[in-house]
TrEMBL record:
This is Regulator of SigK. GO terms for cellular component: plasma membrane. The chain crosses the membrane at residues 106-126. Residues 129-156 form a coiled coil.
Length: 272
């Protein structure tokens, strides 16, 4: 019992397949039952394994009875139609051959063990297939992420190579002295990319908003961005009227953005 109490979650997890097949001994099964009362993960996995075992059992081909078994059944039917004396003599003849009964029992036991082993192997293969499917899904997500990063890098290279591209350096203000940003945009098409680092993470219900400071001093509203980890890397378009802005600023505003600045300036850069 003390050994069972020291068992870890991983030990019980390895017992689930045997429990699904019903081959655990009583002590192990009882220890696993107590663990299942407290572990939602193992309970869910055991249900899934039992469902799979049941499905595999239905899929397993039926085993034809051995010739000895068939002969014994036919003999019992025949004896049911004989006279008492004949039936007694036949019974003595049957019970006088213990070797056949011995090998019949062992044959049936061996067949049962073969079925259990096959089910266990099928369960192992099924779990391996589930693991490989999860790894494949993760690989596909990684591939999509790499493709996105590659597309963004190509977009940046194309933007920087454009003859009308301007690159603006934005410096952190007193509220974010370590923040830095670069704004690159094509003055002809308005295509732009913003890279910002070391910003305070965006509070709930807030967003950073870009502003175009015109020569008249008017601040035109731009896009809003999130910076959960303090960084921004995004692409957008600057409207034609704002491409000759005198300066660019980033403020903290309500998440939906505003028409006029209401929050502190976190980044500021001149378009000179």
């Amino acid at each position: 019992m003390s050994r069972m109490k020291r068992m870890k979650h991983e030990d019980f997890s390895e017992m689930l397949e045997l429990e699904a097949l019903g081959v655990l001994d009583q002590a192990q099964s009882e220890a696993l039952r107590r663990h299942l009362e407290e572990c939602d993960v193992c309970r869910a996995e055991l249900r899934e394994l039992r469902d799979t075992a049941a499905m595999l059992a239905h899929l397993a081909p039926p085993i034809a009875p051995a010739k000895e078994t068939r002969a014994r059944i036919l003999e019992r039917v025949r004896r049911s139609r004989l006279s008492p004396a004949e039936s007694s003599a036949s019974e003595e003849a049957i019970t006088a051959s213990p070797p056949r009964s011995f090998w019949l029992k062992w044959g049936l036991l061996a067949a049962s063990l073969v079925v259990i082993i096959c089910l266990a192997l099928l369960l192992i293969l099924w779990r391996e297939r589930q693991r490989l499917s999860a790894e494949l899904a993760q690989a596909e997500r990684t591939e999509r992420q790499l493709r996105t990063e590659l597309d963004r890098e190509r977009e940046l290279r194309a933007l920087l190579a454009a003859p009308q591209t301007r690159v603006i350096e934005l410096e952190g203000t007193q509220v974010a002295p370590h923040a830095r940003a670069k704004l690159a945009y094509d003055a002809r098409t308005g295509r732009a990319i913003l890279f910002a680092t070391n910003l305070p993470p965006t509070p709930a219900g807030k967003a950073y908003q870009l502003w175009f400071i015109m020569s008249s001093g008017e601040a035109m509203p731009g896009d809003v961005f999130k910076a959960e980890k303090g960084d921004i890397e995004t692409s957008f378009f600057i409207p034609p009227i704002a491409r000759n802005a005198k300066a660019f600023a980033l403020t903290l505003e309500p998440a939906q953005g505003t028409r006029v600045p209401t929050g502190e300036k976190y980044l500021l850069g001149s378009n000179s």
